[in-house]
């Protein structure tokens, strides 16, 4: 299928659109400015509230938009923290022993390494609201301030002291969470939010300097999160 661009269309619908554009130059200019702001974001992170996020609609949100919120996890349930052995590339579960190389049947990567992986389902909250999110391995490591190996050990040894300490830490120490629309916005004009990445507040400036280097990794993580959002959308709590 090919796309043909008609520069000077004719007909009643084309004329109506032209007339609308001529009388709504301010709306078009604002829309173009917003697109440029989203595609060329400031290195400084602008923090909004969860209530601000809830005010967004499919009309005033674009697919590439990314928004940051400063939140805590007020009531972490470790039963919703899933630690398992999986592929180091795609995260698919495996029975291969930790540290052993193998060919993953899911991503077809030869030399994949079996390693601890973590998926955390939790509710994030600020003073204005609460929202459910899913965090994968790298974001779970940021949330708990420890590597996946330690989370795996704590989970499977049922280390009550470590679990209590982790629960208290995420309850009292804020994190920065970046949210963005799922692909449902561009496919069906339905606005659903999913988690894109997690960062620590004290690393904001350092992370900003590394944004260009991390773009590819962030894109891959976003795609993984978009896929998971089909089953677990970042939804506001009622």
Automatic annotation (TrEMBL):
Domain Replication factor A C-terminal: start-end pairs: 72-177
Alphabetized InterPro entries for the sequence: NA-bd_OB-fold, Rep_factor-A_C
Ranges of biased composition (kind: Acidic residues): 203-226
Any Pfam family: Rep_fac-A_C
Gene it is expressed from: LOC110804570
SUPFAM superfamilies, per database record: Nucleic acid-binding proteins (SSF50249)
Region (Disordered): 203-238
Lineage start: Eukaryota, Viridiplantae, Streptophyta, Embryophyta, Tracheophyta
Species, as recorded: Spinacia oleracea
Protein's UniProt name: Uncharacterized protein isoform X2
């Amino acid at each position: 299928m090919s796309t043909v661009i008609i520069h000077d269309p004719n007909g009643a619908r084309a004329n109506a659109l032209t007339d609308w554009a001529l009388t709504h130059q301010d709306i078009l200019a604002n829309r173009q400015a917003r697109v440029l702001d989203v595609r060329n974001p400031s290195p400084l992170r602008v923090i909004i509230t969860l209530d601000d996020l809830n005010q967004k609609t499919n009309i005033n949100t674009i697919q590439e938009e990314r928004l940051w919120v400063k939140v805590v996890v007020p009531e972490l349930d470790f039963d919703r923290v899933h630690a398992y052995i999986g592929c180091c590339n795609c995260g698919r579960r495996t029975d291969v022993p930790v540290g052993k190389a193998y060919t993953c049947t899911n991503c077809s990567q030869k030399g994949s390494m079996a390693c601890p992986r973590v998926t955390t389902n939790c509710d994030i909250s600020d003073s204005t609201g609460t929202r459910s999110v899913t965090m994968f391995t790298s974001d779970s490591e940021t949330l708990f301030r420890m590597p996946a190996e330690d989370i795996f050990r704590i989970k499977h040894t049922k280390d009550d002291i470590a679990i209590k300490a982790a629960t208290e830490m995420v309850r009292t120490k804020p994190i920065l969470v970046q949210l963005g629309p799922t692909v449902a916005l561009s496919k069906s004009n339905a606005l659903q939010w999913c988690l894109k990445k997690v960062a620590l507040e004290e690393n904001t400036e350092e992370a900003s300097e590394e944004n260009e280097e991390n773009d590819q990794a962030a894109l891959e993580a976003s795609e993984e999160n978009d896929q998971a959002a089909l089953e677990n959308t970042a939804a506001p709590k009622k």
